[in-house]
Amino acid sequence: MKRRELLKSAGVLATIPFFGQWTGATPASFGNMFSNMPDNKLYHIPRFGDGRDWFFERRYGMFVHWGIYSIPGWHEQHQWRGRVPRAEYVKLANQWNPKKFNPEQWLDLMEEAGMKYITITTKHHDGFCLWDSKQTTFNTINTPYNKDIIGMLSDACHKRKVPLCLYYSIADWNHPNYPNQGRHHELQPQPQDSPDWDKYILFLKEQVRELCTNYGEIHGFWWDMNVPVYKDPSINAMIRKLQPKAVINNRGFDEGDFGTPERDYDSASSEAKGFDKLVEACQSVGMESWGYKKDEDFYTDRHLISSIDRYLGRDANYLLNVGPTGEGLIPSESAAILRRIGKWKKSVDESFQNVQTNAELVSTPGVLVTKRDSTIYIHINKAPVGNGLKLKPINVLPTKATLLNTGKPIDCVVNLCPSDHASQQPYLRLRNLPVNEMANTVLVAKLEFDRALEQITQAKNPDTNIELTK
To answer: Pairing between strand 389-390 and 427-431?
Structure first.
């Protein structure tokens, strides 16, 4: 399921000037750019040096797709993918009455899951607004619920000092001035509409002004679906003026602050050794829909944890999405997934804090390395093929080796393996890892050395335990 064609350009984040629009290039064409990165590179993403730097501290957030599409519970693009006529779809607003919505419960789960901020869909492609917008009647106030969802959530976030980011879809299947032309993620032209892009942009700007004015401090603006590939830097400039702490993504009207690789579609950014530009990857717990789906299939814990680890381990951010029901409840299956991931993240979190990414410190396939001072963290990101791990070219024994997932010591040794007979070079090996017992997670090893990391790779020397494997 490929939801956003705009993501075809997401893979070049680390190698070219920060892009904001769909270029039509394919992810495969970006692979060579990443492969040409210099060896032994320490990747570092520059900070903003202003109020937006909260983004580098929070790192892991909750994404929420919620709207009237949660009532039928099939897909957030129910109207488009289900070929539902607009006249029929808008009737769902008459059923919108999520009496069980409690923003405090959402934030409780968010915090239990180890998430540090939240991003919510204020208006998805269907045009239904979750706030008291004066620009359209197609909003939550003109429903049986008659409450301002964004207002309720923002109050809860402000009380608990949780950064709130707002998603906004540029494509709009309801507004008569939006030029639906049957392009990707658009309706076919509607006979009752009066397409007028200039008028629609005025409408959009006023809605953005409402969102950036009426709900206190906002920490981010998450654009989506700039189908016409329209550029107008003044819109982001307005957001920055009204909300100086807001980070803005690259799917709007200019390049923004950060890129948005989605659902591991973009293999180039997924497999890149590191990033020089700010990235916030996004994924949903459900395999089919970002909104609530009644009979959803869910990703395995390991798939999600591996994806999260892969981005956090390269100094990027990560949004993991859930779709609440039409009643306003986060489904139990989704909540359980978040809690299990939260336990993993809590156990290994030090491997993401105040660390550097070094893609070339070890040559072991499927492994990510983060480091701090004389400590390195080995992230066994891809499913291990065995219970031992050889960490070439390291050949110095750590003073302490710990499996962060359990807090238990790791059996390790420096010795010569038969497979290295040609070089006669011993290497550091981690042995008897609990790969079968913990097959549905990502193991992270903490290795502490008594010397600078530049000295843990040496030629044959007296203080390495050069013995044959036993």
So the answer is: antiparallel
